[in-house]
């Protein structure tokens, strides 16, 4: 099963159609090819298999992250590492 996870944009690389995002304290670079609107640092996006697939507002991102935190609290450490890698 694949899950999408909300992330906050830390840096935008328009020339590479990518961005550095932070998800629950973990940073990684993702593709922004699928989002046509401009992105900026501090924006929240939904990430799926390395692609930012849509922008989301802060309230929606916080609500989704709360659900992820609850899920993570019930998982063992190896499963959590796989979720965020």
**Average of per-residue pLDDT values:** 88
Low-confidence stretches: none
CATH class: Mainly Beta
CATH architectural group = Roll
How many strands, which pairing sense, and closed or not: the largest β-sheet? 5 strands, antiparallel
What would you report as the Rg, rounded to the nearest angstrom? 13 Å
Count of beta strands: 5
Shape: globular
- Structural class by secondary-structure content: alpha+beta
CATH topology label: SH3 type barrels
Compressed to H and E, one letter per element, the order equals EEEEEHH
Describe the structure.
The protein is α+β, with helices and mostly antiparallel strands and 85 residues long. The protein has a single domain (5-84), classed as SH3 type barrels, CATH 2.30.30. The chain contains two helices and five strands. A five-stranded antiparallel β-sheet has the order 3-2-1-4-5, with helices on one face. A hairpin with a 4-residue loop joins strand 1 (5-13) and strand 2 (18-23). It is globular, with a radius of gyration of 13 Å. The model has no long low-confidence stretch (mean pLDDT 88).
Question: How would you briefly describe this protein structure?
Answer:
The chain is of the alpha+beta class. 28% of the residues lie in helices and 38% in strands. The protein has a single domain, classed as SH3 type barrels (Roll).
């Amino acid at each position: 099963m694949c899950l999408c996870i909300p992330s906050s944009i830390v840096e935008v690389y328009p020339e590479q159609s990518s961005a550095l995002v932070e998800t629950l304290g973990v940073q990684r670079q993702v593709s922004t090819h699928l989002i046509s609107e401009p992105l900026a640092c501090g924006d929240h996006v939904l990430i799926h298999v390395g692609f930012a697939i849509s922008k989301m507002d802060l309230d929606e991102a916080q609500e989704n992250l709360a659900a992820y935190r609850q899920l993570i609290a019930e998982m063992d450490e190896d499963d959590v590492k796989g979720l965020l890698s």
